[in-house]
Amino acid sequence: MKILGLNIGHDAAVALVVDSKVINAISSERIIREKKTNVLNWDVINYVLHPNNLTIDDIDLVVIGGSMPWTNFVKPYFPEDKMEFWMFGNNNPRHNSLEPGYQLYEGRGYDVFVNTQFYQPMLPFKQEDFLPANIVFDAEDFDGGAVVKPGWMINHHTAHAASVYYTSDIPQCAILSVDASGVNGYSSSAVFIAKDDDLTWVYSPDSTIGTFYNAMTELLGYGPGLTKSGTLMGASSYGTPSKVAIEQWRKISQKFSNRDTLSDDSTFNIWAGAFLTKEFPKSIRQNIGRDEEHIEYRSKGDWAYYHHYLTHHNERTTQKVFDHAASVQYVFEQTLLEMVDEVYENTKGLNNDTLCLIGGSFLNCKANYEILKKSKFKNIHLYPACGDDGTSVGAALFTAIKMYNEPRIYHTPAECAYTGIEYPEINQGIPYNQKVIAKMLADSKIVAWFDGGSEFGPRALGHRSFLANPCDPKMKDILNSRVKHREWFRPFAPIVVKERVMDWFDIPVESPYMLYTAPVKQPWKVPSITHIDKTARVQTLDREMNEKIYDLILEFEQHTGVPIILNTSLNVNGQPIVETPEEALELFHSSDIDAIVINNRMLIK
Ligand SMILES: [Fe+2]
């Protein structure tokens, strides 16, 4: 069966799954060229279809990985008897996040629905994790060019959970999904049990800690939480958590339904920010918590006010704000650690000592490492696209395997990570020469690296990267001044060959997706990938995953004695990561880069 999985909303994405195998997947941002974009269009969809000689007509089902509202380009329509379920929820509070009447009757939606034949193939059973839907593309042009496909809406966290479980070969485990959905605890966190290819929601931790982290990113002036929470994580290493954070973190991370007052999550987070930092103007702090003023605050753009308050004073990089960032990180980590302990206890006998972590919150590599080191689970498993882009894959795999009984197929780390399409060789430059590039890197040159299909998820994992020398203490500043132009306090990450990882990093497991921050054992030897707290966001690499980079690192080691290379994403000035060879060449010619490798060709300035 050919299934097209979609994420609509921020981090819009498309995945093509054929017979329960991920063929290609891409985040819209790589095509639309706007970071985290929610835009989906035919360019994005055809990106996964055309190279596989398919059109939308060949697709059997279109599935959407979440309860996000539709867009003008793609809209789900539900059968009449499911409308009430979708709008008002059944007894399952997970479905209560949509307000009554939510967009359903807006515009021509209802008319379109009732006038459309319902194509949905019936399943032999019903389950609340999914709803049948007609997926209409170009719905605005319904009288003309609209395309209607049968499909399903998959619960958001179910789609998250499916992405990590159904790509793995884990027989049985617990799955914890945490993100910043932000409406309430149920819509922001979920626990599943997976066994023998079956996936079952068991409870919600009722936490909105992911939203808290995003909110604090904004409150502290680092920018929108959706795009800049990694910056807060980087900044947190420069600070020390406060006494309030250490002693009273539970007050800030209390379960959503336990909150006596301030149950509105935005208001709660503003209160939490004030409580944690004691920084915000007293006159506003005094007013927080008065119900009648909540709405007024929000309508006045209270968030913008806080943002202005700190950035106006240029406080983002003061020790005080670094300490606040450390406090936020501390609260986040402690909350997740306790949540994971709770998952362990609640799923005892069912979890097989294995935990899959998924959802945007687990892009936080520092927290992941704490969980790895401190939780009772013996095995922790991650997926590279743990943000919402990954729900496109998860929704499609859930549909294929759980709903239509197709067999689960193990996806190697390379198959999980490199889901972009392949491009033909360019007819420029000279043949790739490993020895030349390794020597250039040892000489502290900056090399742009483009190889095969692009990565799925936010990290560059060796297919769209800048490579550089981790041993050169000036490399971080050189990269920032010549190419990346990032905040000075953010670290760059290493790739280390798997067999040598224990000599260099304190990490007891493989980290193919760069989702753990681990202590560096010889920081003086690799200063440009070592963060202020003597850690690094490490990617471990086995030869099977990426032979070309693996061999290049070994060649680099011949020059430097270090089996590690600095790797940062192939983008500049906050743009999305480069997708095509043409974009890579343009970046090469317009930036201060010494060489570029594009598949089997290379150009040197
Ligand atoms: Fe999510």
Q: How does this structure look, described?
A:
This protein is of the alpha/beta class and 605 residues long. It has three domains: 2-161 and 391-411, Nucleotidyltransferase, domain 5 (2-Layer Sandwich); 169-382, Nucleotidyltransferase, domain 5 (2-Layer Sandwich), CATH 3.30.420; 430-604, Carbamoyltransferase, C-terminal domain (DHBP synthase, Alpha-Beta Complex). A hairpin with a 2-residue loop joins β2 (13-18) and β3. The longest helix has 28 residues, at 319-346. It is 36% helix and 19% strand. The strands form three sheets. A nine-stranded mixed β-sheet has the order 13-21-20-14-15-19-16-18-17. A seven-stranded mixed β-sheet has the order 3-2-1-4-7-6-5, with helices on both faces. The chain has a five-stranded mixed β-sheet with strand order 10-9-8-11-12, sandwiched between helices. 51% of the residues are buried. It is globular, with a radius of gyration of 24 Å. The site of fe (ii) ion has 7 residues, from α5.
* CATH class value of the largest domain: Alpha Beta
CATH topology of the largest domain: Nucleotidyltransferase, domain 5
Structural class comes to alpha/beta
Query: Which regions contain 5 or more consecutive residues with pLDDT less than 50?
Result: 81-127, 282-313
Distance between the termini: 48 Å
Strand order of the largest sheet: 13-21-20-14-15-19-16-18-17
Q: Helix tally? A: 22
Fraction of residues in helices? 25-40%
Count of distinct strands: 21
For the record, the count of structural domains works out to 3
Distinct small-molecule ligands in the complex = fe (ii) ion
| CATH architecture field of the largest domain | 2-Layer Sandwich
Largest sheet: 9 strands, mixed
Radius of gyration: 24 Å
Q: Could you report the average pLDDT, rounded to the nearest whole number?
A: 84
What is the overall shape? globular
CATH H-level superfamily of the largest domain: ATPase, nucleotide binding domain
The proportion of strand residues reads: 15-25%
